[in-house]
Design a protein that fits this description.
Elements lengths: L14 H15 L5 H16 L1 H22 L11 H15 L4 E4 H8 L7 E6 L3 H11 L3 E2 L2 H10 L2 E6 L5 E6 L4 H8 L2 E4 L6 E4 L2 H15 L2 H14 L5 H11 L2 H11 L2
Parallel strand pairs: 2-5
Antiparallel strand pairs: 1-2, 3-4, 4-5, 6-7
Helix pairs in contact: 1-2, 2-10, 3-5, 5-9, 5-10, 6-7, 9-10, 9-11, 10-12
């Protein structure tokens, strides 16, 4: 279901032209969908029309609003640690990682929001390739701003596991996954790309749209999580034919998720 004049809704297309394409695509796709499915499809097509800069800004604003809501529920209405908490926190973590020359990439809902439709989350996921010694040095760099005990980080690095660290300033949680020798995750880290979140000038390392989809499908392989599916589907619908589908199917076959990828592609209308 590509727009005839603008296949894939490329990024240099004007907002008005993208919006016209959204109307055309939506009218073609709406068919016999339920009201909930129609609303969901419209949200994704609007993400296509807005483009990555506006979507990234909506993600940042959504994190700030989510922090406001959490503070209000905790009896701290009107108290906000700072504006643009997501960027501030990511700068602190990624500055430490880059200072120590530790390869990393942002994954999870933040990555799917940047490559697809914005989903607000107070958890940020990163994959990194680091030894126990690197983890100990990272603990020192992150402290005291982050709750990041050295023993927890070094144990996770040795076990090729993950550990949660908490930003004491924004109260955002960061999940650090130490990837070890996993061939797919190492490849995803090699394929990472420098990307901005919205209009903010700072760039961070992100996994590619293809690898976001593969990670989401892999994580839901056992849990069958609807959230992981929705995140992956939003990336597939927004990125569409611009992605490397040959790579996607090669890796999906290796990971045992080829059937899910076929279903995702079909549901995305690609």
């Amino acid at each position: 279901m590509m727009c005839e004049n603008h296949p894939g809704l490329v990024s240099d297309t004007s907002t008005v032209e993208r919006a016209n394409c959204v109307i055309q695509i939506t009218n073609e796709a709406i068919g016999n969908l339920s009201s909930q499915e129609r609303d969901r499809l419209m949200q994704v097509h609007l993400a296509q029309a807005r483009g990555p800069v506006r979507n990234g800004d909506l993600l940042r604003q959504g994190v700030d609003r989510a922090l406001d809501i959490r503070n209000a529920r905790a009896g701290e209405a009107g108290v906000r640690p700072m504006d643009d908490a997501l960027i501030d926190m990511l700068c602190a973590v990624c500055d430490a990682l880059e200072k120590l020359d530790i390869p990393y990439a942002v994954t999870g809902s933040v990555a799917s929001s940047v490559h697809g439709e914005p989903f607000s989350s107070l958890d940020v996921d990163l994959v990194l390739l680091a030894s126990a010694g690197d983890a100990a040095r990272l603990s020192t760099e992150l402290s005291p701003r982050f709750y990041a005990p050295e023993d927890m980080l070094t144990e996770a690095a040795r076990a090729f596991s993950f550990v949660n660290v908490v930003d004491n300033r924004t109260s955002l949680k960061v999940d650090l996954s130490f990837i070890g020798s996993n061939p797919f995750l190492r490849l995803a880290l090699e394929r990472r790309m420098r990307t901005r979140i919205g209009s903010h000038p700072r760039e961070f390392w992100f996994v590619t749209p293809e690898d976001v989809i593969l990670m989401k499908l892999l994580w839901r392989k056992d849990t069958r999580s609807q959230k992981q599916w929705d995140n992956a589907l939003s990336v597939a619908r927004v990125q569409g034919a611009r992605m490397d589908w040959k790579y996607l199917f090669e890796q999906a076959k290796n990971l045992g998720i080829e059937e899910d990828l076929v279903k995702l592609r079909d549901e995305a209308g690609i």
